[in-house]
Amino acid sequence: MKQINEDLKQNNFKKAYLLFGEERYLRLQYRKRLEQALCTEGDTMNVHFYQGKDIPLGEIVDLAETLPFLSERRVIFISDSGLFKSGGDVLADYLTGTPCETTCFVFTETDVDKRSRLYKAVNSMGYAADFSIQDERTLKLWVLGALKKENKNISEKTLELFLSKTGTYMSNIQSELEKLLCYCMDRNVITDADVEATCSTQISTQIFDMINALGTGNQRQALDLYYDLLAQKEPPGRIMFQIGRMCNQLLLAKDMSARGYSTKDIAEKMGLPPFIATKYIKQSAPFKSSVLKNAIAKCVELETAFKSGELAPLLSVEILIMNLFSQ
What CA dihedral angle connects 226, 228, 229 and 233, to 10 degrees? Predict the structure, then answer.
């Protein structure tokens, strides 16, 4: 990201950029900034957009070789093509040959294979930026910066409550922050009550609360949370998958914690912000590893049952909740 910021500042651009990674919000923000800097508004002659798989690579190469019309450069945007995992050799050959000096490529992808020829080509003659999920400190500073612009204050505790509900994807944080600001329009201080009143809880957080309820023997609360998810149109199959995934994450956190890993190391290995990893470590503590392993096995067993038609999906999850941590 620093390199792109520097290029934008100096108005000195490379011939190819690859924006990739899980953090879609940042990918799109930087793509927009590059588009504004590289392209003249309203120029349909020299700006081209391609999206999805099976895009016409021959046509793209022909365009890339065509000099721009009354413009400094021709810019080709390619999104979600999958070419950085397979099928990108045509463009790799073009970029590693003698590409037209007046053509610029901007690729936007979620997943890439860094061993692919196209990735190596772009990284060699341009710049590849990895937009991974941001860490806790970065997310907090980002939210605090947005609140400061609106003359709003928030405590550390309330900010952590907000992030625990929104999750770590910046697009969702942005959406929930807009709701929160509208709700608190006439007040300078944002409270826990404001967050609870306005922010939607992500499914992962509700699954977390569900497992916490089951861990304390409160099956009624767990079922209420399940029915709440159903009311939000969450499919039973997805809920079951998330329960199994959460149990697996708790097992991993417990195992690494027992082996002496620090919270920072656990967060890095699991691909989680430290404050989420801390929650997993704390929640996994009361459970025996054997209990979590048994819970994961039950998830697999019941998922197989409803996929094969032996049980209805709705009933499968109810049975899972009632028996998840039984010995």
Answer: 130
User: At which residue do the structure tokens 């989420």 appear?
Assistant: 276
Q: Tens of pLDDT along 13-35?
A: 999 999 999 888 999 999 999 99
Q: What is 169-221 written as a DSSP string?
A: -HHHHHHHHHHHHHHTTT-SEE-HHHHHHHPPPPHHHHHHHHHHHHHTT-HHH
* Residue 6, both tokens: 């520097």
Q: Considering the domain 203-323, what is its CATH architecture?
A: Up-down Bundle (1.20)
**pLDDT tens-digit profile of 199-258?**
877 777 778 888 888 877 788 888 888 888 888 788 888 888 888 888 999 999 999 999
Q: Domain coordinates of the chain in residue numbers?
A: 2-130, 136-198, 203-323
Taken as a whole, the chain contains a residue count of 327
Residues 6+ apart with CB under 8 A from 126: 14, 15, 16, 17, 18, 105
Report the predicted TM-score, pTM, of the whole model to 2 decimal places. Answer: 0.68
Helix (H) or strand (E) holding 242: helix 236-258
Q: Quote the CA–CA distance of 85 and 241 in Å, as a whole number.
A: 26
3-state secondary structure of 226: helix
**Domain 2-130: which CATH number of 3.40.50.1980, 3.40.47.10, 3.40.190.10, 3.40.50.300:** 3.40.50.300
Sorted by sequence, the CB contacts under 8 Å of residue 1 that are 6+ apart come out as: 26, 30, 129, 131
CA distances from 316 to 128, 205, 234, 237 (A): 44, 21, 15, 9
